[in-house]
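input
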Amino acid sequence: MNAFSAGLTRFIPLLLGALLLAAYTLLPVVIQPERGATTPYVLLENRANNELELPTAGLQLVAMAALGALCLGVWNVLAPQFGRAIAVLTALCGGLALTYFIIFARDYAAEEATYLASLGPGFWLMLATAGLLLAQVLLPRPRPPARYAIMRVLGNQEGVLLLTVLAMTIAVGIANPRFVAERNLSDIIMTTSYIAIAAIGMSMVIITGNIDISVGSLMGLLALISGRVSLLTDWASATFGLATPEARGLVIAVSWVAPVLCGALVGALIGFAVTYLKIPSIVVTLGMRSIIFGGMVVWTNGERVVDMPPEYFLAQMRPLNIPMPIYFMVVLVIVAALWMRYSAAARALYAVGGNAEAARLSGLNERRVIMQAFILNGVFAGVASLLYATQFQTIQPTPQPNVELAIISAAVVGGVSILGGTGTVIGAMLAALLLNAIRSALVFINVSPFWVQAVQGVLILLTVLADIFRRRRQST
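output
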């Protein structure tokens, strides 16, 4: 393969991703003489606004595929040695985009529609580009070194989870187009967001060889604290005459920061008991879970927190029509992943969890490292509780059931070793997304939702067994 062909192949995912995104956002999809060109933005509103009754279920998958191909294209340009693995992922983006056209064909045939000749060039350009995204995997590419081979790059826990999420989205979307409706996909990611954020801190704790089973109760308590603080806007106005927008904004800001600070404080208390009092973390957090749960009931007297001010609901904000929790999840996961990869303080978490004695002999302060992990766990639990509290109009006086199991499952299924020493926060986020997607998919394929717990348990067992076998191979 000559240098020119190799260089051209390097830019293919980027060019195809840009072309698919242009077809989706800029070009007409349907030509309607009475209304002129109709863009996907109009089509996504509802079918009543679409005179030709063009099926729109799954159309947002085209935009997701385009953005995914663009990101992969940038990665391929910056790191061409990953070209073969990126080609596989780009092909999956093409499959994701083609899912819409499969759904479209089924709806078109079911309705016995006759408007195929009226479709604009943008529709056919999207179809052709989706096919090219899928076909580009067949192009010859330079053979990479062994460390950049497909199985090496995509065979880790994060790669397996990503491929599973994409494959399940395509399969279930074709079986039931309502699964890939914009509202359902948004709900899945919204539910994933606060679980994934809490799983960042949980991953840090488990990497050090500890665990926190009080995180669900802690999130419930922090949500109550945040909601109660937000109610002080009316109290401050009545007591001190602070009715100005600036004063109200200050109280709202305090209500957003309070759960993060309180979470750090509780994390420090747990860390102190584990490191200085030498109490096993599972015992400390089990006791803390009971203390928090009982304290919540006594404090609230079983009453919900309601009538929060309108500006308090951070999770309901939608900049660029994207829910705010998604921004929090993406930014925090990226920042945490970079910090854990390149920071010496973060690498100490792996050292202590992998071999505490070796870490101590190398000069690391084990107590300080574990304290840091529990404090950060409290901080991320505080952020997650804020998003949970501001998602709805009321805050319940008791913790959400099984939320700690969901958080721990996300960390463990995401590749964080329950024995400590290995794992990433990206894997935890993908696992949280997978578990929530499975829960939704079971509903759409008419399987009892009670199977979710069984599937979750099986995934945890398989992950732990795989980790044990891996450690045994490394020790021999």
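quick obs: Confidence is low (pLDDT under 50) at residues 30-52.
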